[in-house]
Design goal:
The complex is a heterodimer. By secondary structure, chain A is mostly helical. Chain A is about 70% helix and about 0% strand. Chain B is an all-alpha fold. The chains are: A mainly alpha, B mainly alpha.
C-alpha cells in the first residue's frame, strides 16, 4: 500500500527535519532524498527510470531554452518521453494485439518481447515532463535549478497518484524560504484524515459489497448489477479523490500548495462541467497539450466538434492503463462531449434555469458517467 | 481592449446577448465559457490583439475574468 505506515512514517520524519533546516534549498534536498527513498522502497526500477528521465528532460529543457532550433529540441524531447511511456506501459498490449490480429494467418511469426516492468508513477512523471518541456517552448517556464526540477518530478507526496502538478506553479514555492505555520499541520491533518476516511471507510466498504458482483456477474440479476455499478461509481470517486486529499494534505505539511483535483464532479449538469471537476489536473493537461493544439490542426466543424474531443479523450482514456477498455471509455466520453457541444450550439434554445430540469440534467450526467465506468471494472 | 473582449464574449458565448457581464464576471469557473469556447477566444485574441497566449495560461484560476484576461494578454 503506497499510502501505508511507511509513507506516513516517512512523511512525519521528513517534515520534522524539513522545518528544522534553515534554508529552503537544503529543505528541498531533504525532500528529494525522502522522495527517492519512497520511490526506491516501493519500486527500485522506478527510481532508476525517474533519475534517467529527469536528467533527459532537464537537458532538453536547457536545449529548448538556449538553442536556436527550439522546435526541433522540443519535438525530440517529447517524442523521447512518449517513447519511454509506450515501451514500458503499452508494449505488452501492442504486441498481444498484433499477435491476435495476425493469428488467422497460418505460420505468421508471433512477436514476443521481454516482459517489461511498469515503473511506479511512469504515467504521471512523463506527463509532468511533457508539460515542463512544452511550457519552456511556449516561454512560460524559464531555466531553473536542477534540484527544484528533480523535486518537481519526484515529490513523494504526489508521485504515485497525482495531481499532475505544473512546474510553473510548484517552482515559485520552492524558491523562497517558507516560514513554518501551525496552520500547515492543522490543514494537513484535516485533509489527510478526510482522504483516509473517503478511501478506507467509504470506498473500501462499498467495494466490499460491490466487488463480488463483478467477480461472478452472471450469477446476479440486472437490478443487482445496476446497483453494484452505482456503488462502483461512488467507490471510484471516493477512492481517487481520497488519494488526492491525502496527496494534497501531505504536501501541505511542507507548506506546499498543490492544485485541487476534484470539485464535486457528480453534481454537475453536463459532461463538459463534469470534466472540469473530475481529475482536474489530468483534464487540464489534456486540454492544454492535446485539445488546444489538435483544435488548431483542422478547419472543419466535424474536426473541431467531433474528432478533436474523441481523440483527446481517447488519449485521456488509454493513459489510465494498458487496456483497450480504457481507450473505449475515453472515446465514450469524447463522443459525449462532442454531442453536448453540438446540442448546445445548434439545438438548445436557452439554458435551463428551472430547478426540475437542472436536477434532471445532473441525474442524466451522473447516469452517463456511471454507465461509462463499465469499461473500468 | 476591455470593451472588445466583453463584446466578443457576449456575442459568441452567451445564449442571451442582453446578459450583462463586467470585467469581474467569472466566465470559466461559472461554466459560461468551456474548453471549446476557449479555443475560439484564444484565436480571437491572437487575431485582434496580435498576442499568442499559451494554453496553460488560460486557466479557470488565471483567465477567469476579463480583467485577468487583460493582465495575461499584457504579459505577452
Amino acid at each position: 500500500m503506497l499510502f501505508g505506515l511507511t509513507f506516513f512514517g516517512l512523511l512525519i520524519a521528513t517534515a520534522i527535519i524539513y522545518w528544522i533546516l534553515p534554508y529552503q534549498k537544503s529543505r528541498n534536498i531533504v525532500l528529494i532524498i525522502s522522495s527517492f527513498a519512497f520511490i526506491g522502497y516501493n519500486d527500485i526500477n522506478a527510481l532508476i527510470v525517474v533519475i534517467c528521465l529527469s536528467v533527459y528532460a532537464f537537458l532538453f529543457g536547457y536545449f529548448i531554452e538556449i538553442k536556436h532550433n527550439k522546435k526541433l529540441f522540443h519535438r525530440i524531447g517529447i517524442i523521447g518521453l512518449i517513447f519511454v511511456l509506450v515501451i514500458f506501459k503499452y508494449s505488452g498490449l501492442l504486441t498481444n494485439t498484433f499477435n491476435q490480429l495476425t493469428s488467422f494467418i497460418n505460420d505468421f511469426p508471433k512477436i514476443s518481447i521481454y516482459k517489461l516492468f511498469i515503473p511506479l508513477g511512469i504515467s504521471y512523471i512523463t506527463f509532468k515532463y511533457i508539460s515542463y518541456l512544452t511550457d519552456i517552448y511556449w516561454n512560460i517556464n524559464k531555466e531553473c535549478s536542477f534540484i527544484n526540477f528533480l523535486l518537481y518530478g519526484s515529490l513523494f507526496t504526489i508521485f504515485s497518484a497525482g495531481p499532475i502538478e505544473r512546474f510553473e506553479r510548484l517552482n515559485p514555492q520552492l524558491e523562497n524560504k517558507l516560514q513554518f505555520q501551525s496552520e500547515y499541520i492543522e490543514k494537513s491533518f484535516e485533509r489527510i484524515v478526510f482522504g483516509l476516511a473517503k478511501k478506507f471507510i467509504i470506498a473500501d466498504w462499498i467495494g466490499y459489497f460491490a466487488s463480488p458482483v463483478w467477480k461472478n456477474s452472471g450469477d446476479y440479476s440486472l437490478e443487482i448489477r445496476s446497483l453494484a455499478l452505482l456503488g462502483f461509481s461512488i467507490q471510484i470517486y471516493m477512492d481517487f479523490s481520497g488519494y488526492s486529499d491525502i496527496a494534497i494534505g501531505s504536501s501541505k505539511l511542507f507548506g506546499l500548495s498543490i492544485m485541487e483535483n476534484f470539485n464535486f464532479p457528480y453534481f454537475k449538469s453536463n459532461i463538459s462541467q463534469f470534466w472540469r471537476s473530475w481529475h482536474i489536473s489530468l483534464s487540464d493537461w489534456i486540454r492544454d497539450y492535446i485539445f488546444f493544439p489538435l483544435s488548431k490542426m483542422g478547419k472543419t466543424k466535424l474536426w473541431f466538434y467531433f474528432f478533436v474531443p474523441v481523440i483527446a479523450m481517447g488519449i485521456c482514456g488509454i493513459w489510465h492503463g494498458a487496456s483497450w477498455n480504457f481507450l473505449i471509455w475515453g472515446i465514450y466520453h469524447g463522443v459525449g462531449l462532442s454531442f453536448y457541444q453540438i446540442w448546445k450550439k445548434y439545438l438548445r434554445r436557452k439554458p435551463e434555469t428551472n430547478i426540475f430540469f437542472k436536477s434532471l440534467a445532473i441525474v442524466s450526467t451522473f447516469t452517463f458517467v456511471t454507465i461509462g465506468w463499465i469499461w473500468f471494472i | 481592449m476591455k470593451e472588445k473582449l466583453i463584446e466578443f464574449i457576449k456575442s459568441e458565448y452567451l445564449e442571451n446577448e442582453d446578459s450583462e457581464i463586467t470585467e469581474d464576471t467569472k466566465l470559466i469557473s461559472s461554466g459560461l465559457i468551456d474548453s471549446f469556447s476557449l479555443v475560439s477566444l484564444q484565436t480571437y485574441i491572437e487575431k485582434e490583439f496580435g498576442k499568442k497566449i499559451p494554453a496553460p495560461k488560460i486557466t479557470a484560476v488565471s483567465f477567469d475574468t476579463v480583467k485577468q484576461m487583460i493582465e495575461i494578454i499584457n504579459q505577452f
